[in-house]
Amino acid sequence: MIDIKKLLPSSAIELVDKRLKEDLIRYKDPLTGQLKKNLSEVIEICPACESQDWRYEFKKYVFNYVKCNNCGLLHVRERLNDNELDKLYGNDGRSVLQMKNLYIPTADYRMNTIYNPKAKKIANLKPNGKLLDFGCSAGFFIKAACNQGLDAYGIETNEFSVNFARELNGTNKIYEGDIRETSLEKNNFDLITMFDVFEHVPDPSGLLKVLNPYLKKSGILVIETSHIDCFEHEYLKAENTNVLGDVHLMHFTQKSIEIIANRSGFNIINKKIFGLDIAHIINFCKRNKKKEMIEMPNELIKLIQNNLDDMGRGCYINVELQKI
After folding, report:
1. What is the pLDDT of residues 213-263, one digit of tens each?
2. Residue 41: which residues within 8 A CB-CB, separation 6 or more?
3. Quick check: 226 and 242 in contact, CB under 8 A?
4. What gap in Å lies between CA 296 and CA 284, rounded to an integer?
5. Structure pTM?
6. Residues in a beta bridge with 273
7. DSSP 168-207
8. Which residues of 76-102 are buried (b: 16+ CB within 10 A; e: fewer)?
9. Of the candidates 220, 275, 219, the residue with the CA atom closest to the CA atom of residue 1
10. Phi/psi at 289 (nearest 5 deg)?
């Protein structure tokens, strides 16, 4: 069972939260309380199904959230524009701050509890296959995948992460920038993986259409992202710490992912819903000194979470898509 304290050390969270507050001050129009217009871009249609039938759900910080009445996708109505997203994910942005102070220091724990088990499952899909990890970050999953016998490569846009991943895996294993501008060949990969990336992308269908040609015939794309039809969101709503409008532009339902997959030349061949809902809720209550804060033995947390997962109410979804 994953220990949230080891996964998310309080000292690192405090540092990232401090930067978040600074970013939010910069985003906010002091007159309207909304996201500054010169920093924003309005999302006119649902990024999953292209419906214009939506309802307002809530506002968090400067971001208004709407939910598609057709596919259930929850997304920000006004996102940061591309120039601001480049700043956010640049070397001086909050994303790299989080990488340096949170993900890299907890890498050994994450390797043992997350990356190694995940790589083992992925390797079973295409033993000894060729894999591309899209949005590979610091490259820890690539290392785990290679240890499982996969010929694994990564692609990443952030310079700091690229350099770190190259030191960890070798320069020839990591590509930088837009995949269409690299030397990567099409029809070349048995597997493409995308972990905790999909919710950051303004155009998920467009991204899958770009990636599709790089897979071999019957190749498999594995996506792991946030699942909004979960107990955590039902309980915390806007206070859900995963609802963070500058980085997480959208939160998916099973239906929305199926629509995106079908529009992009894929069929869903497997899916799994799982989560850390209970651990996240307890951690949230402790950090915010909520009256409803409770202590619960790990065995009970695991039991309740397993039941939520079986009911399809976990906060993450993993889908395997096969190229048509």
Report:
1. 999 999 999 999 999 999 999 999 999 989 999 999 999 999 999 999 999
2. 78, 79, 80, 81, 82
3. yes
4. 14
5. 0.95
6. 317
7. HH-GGGEEES-GGGSSPPSS-EEEEEEES-GGG-S-HHHH
8. bbbbbbeebbebbbeeebbbbbbbebb
9. 275
10. 50, 45
